[in-house]
Design goal:
Distance between the termini: 38 Å
Largest sheet: 7 strands, antiparallel
Strand content: 35-45%
Helix content: under 10%
Structural class: mainly beta
Number of domains: 1
Shape: globular
Radius of gyration: 15 Å
Number of strands: 10
Amino acid sequence: MALARWYAKGFLKLLALAAVGAAAVSVPSSAQGKTGWELCNQTSYVIEAATGRPDGEEVIVEGWTRLRPGQCRTAIQGPLKNGVYLVFARSSKAHRGGQREWSGEIPLCVDTNGSFAVENPSSCASMGLEQRGFAAVRFDKGFGSTPFKETDLYNKGGQSPENAG
């Protein structure tokens, strides 16, 4: 149901934006026999990431994959089905200088206080969850890697990326 709504509400336009770099992540392809979705932290912050994966017409959202600076971890075991997956990441609350977010425009629910796995409900608040904007990432080879970089676009306290320092 949630995926059908996205397609009906211009999800393809969001996919095009993600493909040209408007999303906060990129997906380099490498044929090294890898499977699954690897997230890599190329920042100086500890990052926590939540991922969304299609399950029929629903989306299963899971978090948090914790990444130390320089660390890579598999967030979703593969091989991945071809299609669109979703990601939202944030710097640890312990980071000085405010929390940073690597996000997109697709609203999904997360539990901001701890590990979670949820089929995306129609109302986040009714389940004690909060809504966050996820970025779309397309996979077509059964695997992929998403790096988070300090130079990527991110949101900091509602500021535009150019003004967030």
